[in-house]
Model the fold of this input.
Amino acid sequence: MKTLMTKLSALPLSLLVAGSLTLSSAAVAQDSAQSLDQLLEYVKQGKVNEARQNKEREARFLKDKKQQANLLKKAEQTRTREEERSTRLEKIFEQNKEKIIVKREALNEAKGSLNELFGHINSAAGDMRENFNTSLVSTEYPNRGEFLTGLIEKLKGDSLPTIAEIERVWFEMQREMIESGRIVQYNTTVATPAGDDIQADVVRVGSFNIVTKDGEYLKYSDDTLSILPRQPASSFVNWAENLANSTDGHGRFGVDPTGPTGGSLLAAFIDTPTLTERWHQGRQVGYVITAVGIIAMLIAAWRFVVLTAIGAKVNAQLKSTVASTDNPLGRVLVIADENPNMDTESLELKLNEAVLKEIPNLENSLTLIKIIAAVAPLLGLLGTVTGMIITFQAITIFGAGDPKTMASGISSALITTVLGLIVAIPTLLAHTIVSGRAKRVIHVLEEQAAGIIARNAESK
Done:
């Protein structure tokens, strides 16, 4: 019944195909026919050809149907065999599972108190593996962590460690303690800051630090020994170089006590900004303060040289009986020599006038130096306030979760205050020195002018 329905459902499709073929044949015949009789003959031939093709299609269909039935039968037989095999394997699996449970219970009973021992070995191996991953001793004795990883995996399973493996755990632990107190030199692969691998002689100071023959500090991370891109202060590098090239005796060396735990102290020393970096932290305000300070010191040096030369000429004039116009005192004395018969009051006015003319030249730029000494701390305070505002804005945006970031911002903000004081203190001292020299010369001028007036008054 089902086959009949299939055939009936396929009948319209067959008729449609046959009809299309008939129409196409008729259309071809119509195009090539020369008369109606010839056209009729073409149509008859087309029907005969179509009937033959339909029979061939039916034969192929019946043949394919037999093959499909054979394939279906084979597939059903295969499925039956596999189901039987699956049932058999499931029974075997359940039996083996029960055997494993029995064997494990027997193993646990046989272990007895050894379970506690294996637990301690597992714990010790885990701690040692974590320590070896960061220990500098691993640069000389690599691949220790692989053994411990394999041992830990074995302890997690059903296998038992051998006596040799247990003894090696004790051996590695003992070797780590001994090597942490030795200073040794050996050759190993080192990565440069450029990313190249080179062979270099290194010196390991216990488990604290490791340096090259040139005194460069190294970092050990991810089983790779690399030169730190930024080295600590030159004194530490020099000590490391002396240690690496020494053969006996004692020497100074900067040991990082936090080396076994990551070297945080050495990292802090390396990250400490240099004087140049701290100067750049002052930014624009710091640059202005520095420029103002340089100008003040240049002016102070210029005035110091000028006033020293003037003071020397004034001292020479004091010892000379002939007035010279190349110094302030000589120019004052010239006025007295040119007016020997002038009355005392008039001579006093002329001498006071001459002294007053000399004072501006002597005190030239001293006020500017004094102003710079007063303004520099104020500029530093301005930079600090500006830096604090920027720091608190960053805290508002990113939060105060990282105290180091906050402390770094405050430190940078205070740099301008330091720069302002650095400029103000020497500038103020320079102003005091230069102003003192100017005052000494002015005092000599006033003293000599008063003496001339007194002598003139006595002669009258």
In short: The CA atoms of residues 137 and 218 lie 13 Å apart. Residues 1-30 have pLDDT under 50 and may be disordered. The chain has three domains: 2-88, 117-263, 281-459.
